[in-house]
Design brief:
Layout lengths: L32 H11 L4 E2 L30 H7 L6 E4 L2 H12 L4 E6 L3 H9 L4 E8 L4 E3 L1 H8 L2 E6 L12 H13 L3 E5 L19 E6 L12 E4 L2 H14 L5 H10 L4 H24 L12 E5 L5 H11 L2 E2 L1 E2 L10 E5 L4 H19 L3
Parallel strand pairs: 1-11, 3-4, 3-6, 6-7, 7-8
Antiparallel strand pairs: 2-9, 4-5, 8-9, 10-13, 12-13
Helix pairs in contact: 3-4, 3-7, 9-11, 10-11
Length: 382
């Protein structure tokens, strides 16, 4: 058996991609299988790590005196930092412990009990949380072309006529592409026609300096984000919801019932860095300029065609005929390489591989060299 035959696309991978369907309770609650796969491998500390979907930013927080003390006092409002970031009133903001919690809070605050359309490929919580909250979900997908991932409008229109809520991640994980301008305009109008509310997970959008949050498209639109992916502060779990005052009031009630109040240390750390939030975005631009040409050149050498997304810190490409999960768990592990198989995000992506470039150029260049060796072995290229 030659090497490539060991890694032929199986097409039957089970248990990793997110799932849709009816309400999920008890043993039916779906796992975030990506994390079950990823965390043990992250702990292996493989020396060539291209798995990150967010920026690795070297924050120096200095000293925050008595960080554990209550941050609340006369004339303060926890939400002011985010309201200033978006140019909205504080009444249109609700803070959460990260964007993943914001997803569940936003669904509870917006759902009217009907079915939910969920976009895939996606990170599991975006497409699975509605099921855990007792709602039925239906999948919609964008489809790849040479220059973008686009909406099949006939298919989406059919689904939108059956639901009252749509969950999307405009910067599609794992490929990093956002909606075309035409598709975004069509989607906004179609949701208004069908009275569908939109929850938009925009954790990657801050890397696009021209991004317009979905919230500004109308009262039926909700934007979610955090300081994790673009700003490199995932450790403090600081997220938010931007929505109409009505939806924010619902979100506050839900949050107080499920989570109580925000952590004072989290608020104080966020306040400490609020004037430096552009610095991570500058670093992302630098990493793209330095790192992407190396990745594209390497992929050309092994015969893989790929157009990178126009912004952000990750993208994905096909490795034709290769099961990338098995590739990373065998050849990749042997060479100390970690990247993320496409099967973690949807069925049908078993031969896709997600690569992040949000690390220093020297480390990235070394990792890309190792990735080339792994791909040549898997593809049986001499």
């Amino acid at each position: 058996m030659n090497f490539i035959s060991r890694f032929l696309f199986r097409g039957s991978m089970e248990g990793y991609h997110p799932t849709a369907g009816g309400p999920a309770r008890a043993e039916e609650v779906p796992p975030v299988a990506y994390l079950k796969w990823y965390i043990p491998r992250l702990k292996e500390m493989r020396p060539h790590n291209l798995s990150f979907s967010g920026l690795q930013y070297p924050w120096d927080l200095g000293t925050i005196e008595d960080i554990w003390k209550d941050h609340r006092g006369p004339g303060t409002d926890d939400r002011r930092m985010v309201s200033e970031m978006y140019g909205v009133n504080v009444e249109n903001v609700h803070l959460t412990h990260g964007a993943t919690q914001a997803i569940s809070i936003a669904i509870s605050a917006t759902s009217r009990g009907g079915k939910v359309a969920v976009e895939m490929p996606s990170y599991g919580p975006l497409s699975q949380t509605a099921r855990i909250l007792g709602l039925e979900t239906i999948v919609v997908r964008r489809k790849p072309t040479e220059s973008a991932w686009i909406i099949d409008r006939e298919e989406w229109a059919s689904v939108l006529s059956q639901v009252d809520l749509l969950m999307v991640c405009p910067q599609l994980n794992p490929v990093g592409w956002s909606y075309t301008e035409s598709d975004r305009e069509w989607l906004i109008e179609a949701c208004k026609q069908h009275d569908v509310r939109i929850i938009s997970d925009e954790v990657y959008s801050g890397a696009d300096r021209n991004w317009k949050p979905f919230y500004f498209e109308g009262d039926n639109c909700v934007s979610i984000s955090s300081l994790t992916k673009v700003h490199g502060l995932g450790q403090i779990r600081y997220g938010w919801i931007i929505a109409s005052k009505e939806i924010i009031a619902n979100a506050q009630n839900t949050f107080h019932n499920l989570a109580g109040i925000m952590s004072s240390p989290v608020i104080r750390i966020a306040e400490q860095i609020k004037d430096q939030l552009n610095e991570p975005v500058d670093l992302i631009d630098h990493y793209r300029e330095e790192n992407l040409p190396l990745l594209q050149s390497m992929l050309n050498r092994v015969g893989i065609e790929w157009n990178p997304p126009p912004y952000g810190v990750f993208g994905a490409f096909r490795v034709p005929g290769v099961d990338t999960l098995e590739m990373i768990d065998t050849i990749g592990k042997e060479h100390g390489l970690l990247a993320v198989p496409g099967c973690m995000f949807d069925s049908g992506l078993d031969d896709w591989l997600r690569v992040g470039w949000s690390i220093d150029p020297k480390s990235f260049a070394e990792a890309v060299g190792v990735l080339e060796t792994v791909l040549r072995t898997a593809l049986d290229i001499t």
